[in-house]
Amino acid sequence: MPGANSVTSNQETLHKDLEKVVRKYARTTFLRPIADHTREAFAEAEEFVQKFYEAAEKGDPGTESGMTNEKKKGAPATECGMTAPVAVILDSGCGTGESTIHIARRFPNIPVIGIDKSYARLNKAGNPSQTAGEDVPSNAFWIRAELLDFWRLALEYVNAGKWTIPYHAVYYPNPWPKQSEATRRFHMHPIFPTLLALGQTIELRTNWEIYAREFAEATRIVFEENPRIATKEVYGSPTLRFEDDDKGDSRLLRLRSAQAPTGMTIKCESFDPESPETAFERKYKEARQKLWRVTVSHF
Ligand SMILES: C[S@@+](CC[C@H](N)C(=O)[O-])C[C@H]1O[C@@H](n2cnc3c(N)ncnc32)[C@H](O)[C@@H]1O
Known about the structure:
Elements: H1 18-26, H2 36-58, H3 69-73, E1 86-87, E2 89-92, H4 98-106, E3 112-116, H5 119-122, H6 128-131, E4 140-144, H7 147-159, E5 163-164, E6 168-171, H8 192-198, E7 201-206, H9 209-225, H10 228-231, E8 240-247, E9 250-257, E10 263-271, H11 279-286, E11 291-298
Parallel strand pairs: 1-5, 2-3, 2-6, 3-4, 6-7
Antiparallel strand pairs: 7-11, 8-9, 9-10, 10-11
Helix pairs in contact: 1-9, 2-7, 7-8
The structure holds S-adenosylmethionine.
The site of S-adenosylmethionine has 20 residues, from helix 7 and helix 11.
């Protein structure tokens, strides 16, 4: 499997242009037209989500019976009769889809969409070797799509109050370790503010420490540039207060609004999963590589 070796890069610390590039993209909107095939894939995902919740309302086996949107979200329907947004989990760049199964088991009442552009990898999703002989969870679904487009379509749904994304997995994205290719890393790409605005908790995993540290720092910069992402535009443009707790391999940054009980945390740390949840994670663990994760949570 390509990528099982440790990352080699001509970069020894955070990219010299990280701050400049991230600040620039935090102030702009990524306008590339959305590909038709991803619109179609998104419509399929949307249909899966809808059917999953319809089945749950009817109490079909495999879903939580009789559950309404209000119960799932803990939020009341609006007075004008609009329903509350439904919860959807994304597993972006899911590869062979193993992580989608793990996440679907962790959140059995929420549909989990595994997304990847590789047909060959997705073809292995749900393979019996991944499920240890058990059925594929009924809330797991895979689609082939371009993430940069899918995320923008998903954000339209979030902003329209149709979806809420309590957890977004971004496990082992391509690191693009050459300095000259750095703007292909998600956090140095114009899509990054969209990615941050999408989920309530985003978990990035990587085997490259620099990628994790850059991702965490890029997140801090985007929120500094555009605190409305942190506060969902509800509270205006509050001043953010930073609290830094730096301990060895773990760094926790709290960004708190000065005007409202809201903000976000960015945690960057090394971790050692007991049992690997993805094909790449297994290879890295077998090769005894140190793994890193960044958890970004809105509160
Ligand atoms: C290094 S692999 C990791 C796969 C899986 N998360 C794992 O840990 O085994 C990165 C995956 O991201 C997918 N990918 C990268 N860029 C993508 C994009 N722009 N849209 C959709 N998938 C993408 C690739 O096809 C590949 O399967």
